[in-house]
Amino acid sequence: MDVTAPEFDVAMRGYARDQVVPLVERIIATLEARQGAAPPEQPVTSAEVQQTRFDVVLRGFNRTQVKEYLASVAGLLD
């Protein structure tokens, strides 16, 4: 999975999209800032990624895919 352009399937019961998307956008902005882009207003830390919990809702993002993405980027944020 591309960490700067993740795509998650929609599942019958998945993580709330309105909670996942803002975190993913902050992750991408934080990683891009390390490549020379402008720093984000709210950089995200590895600890924050690991501690984040999402609500489970109908037609949310696939939980396994989101967990795998967050696990893969947590190491990049250290």
From TrEMBL:
UniProt name for this protein: DivIVA domain-containing protein
Lineage, opening ranks: Bacteria, Bacillati, Actinomycetota, Actinomycetes, Streptosporangiales
